[in-house]
Design a protein that fits this description.
Blueprint (H helix, E strand, L loop, with lengths): L6 H14 L1 E11 L2 E12 L2 H6 L4 H20 L8 H4 L8 H8 L1
Antiparallel strand pairs: 1-2
Length: 107
């Protein structure tokens, strides 16, 4: 029996890794003449960001990224550029109801 490449199997493995995650741990000791010189302890977590934050990993990073995004958004609203229209003028974040009336009014 020859091994075959199955794209669906790779997608399934990737799906499980991102959804559930995996933790890899390794301890390495470098020694010369049976005298330990260097010890290395490695831990790697592989998962999707949602899973990582669910388990408390990257909590600080996630909070700082969200705070930075909020402050950028607040800064953009407090000092809009004079050359560019604001998000409200463009209708960003609003429903499509009334968009045709708004377009007709600007023509």
């Amino acid at each position: 029996m020859r091994p075959r490449k199955d794209d669906e199997a790779f997608v399934d493995v990737l799906d499980v890794l991102l959804r559930d995650g995996a933790v890899l741990r390794a301890d390495v000791i470098v020694s010369v003449a049976e005298i330990p010189l260097v010890g290395i302890k490695l831990t790697a977590a592989i998962a999707g960001m949602e899973t990582m934050t669910e388990y408390g990993l990257f909590e600080e990073w996630d909070a700082s990224r969200r705070n930075a995004a909020v402050s950028r958004r607040q800064y953009a609203r407090s000092k809009p550029d004079q050359d560019r229209p604001t998000f409200d003028e463009l209708g960003v974040g609003t429903s499509h109801k009334g968009a045709d009336e708004r377009d007709d009014a600007t023509k």
